[in-house]
Amino acid sequence: MHIRTIAAFTLCLILATLSQAGAASDFPHYWDGREHISKPDLSTVERIRFVTTVDYPPFNFVDSTGRISGFNVDLARAICNELAVTSICQIEARPWNELQPTLDNGEAEAIIAGLKPTAALREKYAFTAPYMRLPARFLTMRDTALVEPLANTLDKKTIGVIAGSVHQAIFADFFPRGHWVGYPSRELMLNDLQAKKIDAVFGDGSDLSFWIGSPDAKNCCAFTGGPYIAPQFLGDGMMIATTLENGELVDAFNFALKSLEEKGTISELYLRYFPVDFY
Predict the structure, then answer these.
(1) 136-233, what's its fold?
(2) Does the global pTM surpass 0.70?
(3) Model confidence over 89-126: pLDDT tens digits?
(4) Which of 34, 160, 173, 201 stands 20 to 30 A from 145 (CA)?
(5) Which residues belong to CATH 3.40.190.10 in the chain?
(6) CATH 3.40.190.10 is right for the domain spanning 6-133+237-273
């Protein structure tokens, strides 16, 4: 995903506030409503310090007042509130390359920054269930939407992808008959879409959602077709990581995440920070 500037993100939030009050969302549910998770006893826990970064808006960034903000930050606060442990919760910003050492040396209890749960990391960390997945999406001009089923349509269309990206790999695997063109940059690809030199682009839904709502897009475009989760390419989603020794916190976080999903809190945070629904 491309790193968006805080200024552009702030503008998107303003647009969202003005235009999306009361908007509905297709934000997915990750928990089976019939699944029961008991609330863990955290009475012996003295501190829960989350570490994150500040260079990945809208998940983690510094706002105009110098305060750590973002979806992940508000989610961490909501988790602490749900567990009734706000008094012992802390959120600290660190550079990305310091997150794991900070967890390893005991300076923090959890990472909430989109750390991917690779096989190697699962040997040293415990991860929660996912709280968000970032799907791939097709983007077209509003007046030239692709016709479903897409598998029968794409062999007659030209689709832009970022050359060498995971989304190029997803497209080639899911749509072997489709014709794609690789671009060296997102800007060139989206310019060609607006100029109708290509029929659609295929890329990260969350990143494209911010471009859709930006002044550069000029209200030209919209998502076509459904979201493509593709865990074999995109991973299992965003999770919270703790050390194996702090495994009881995973149970606590999972309890809170399930409860927050049922209450609609996570969906509300999603609508707050993402101006255009990418699901």
Answers:
(1) D-Maltodextrin-Binding Protein; domain 2 (3.40.190)
(2) yes
(3) 999 999 999 999 999 999 999 999 999 999 999 999 99
(4) 173
(5) 6-133+237-273, 136-233
(6) yes
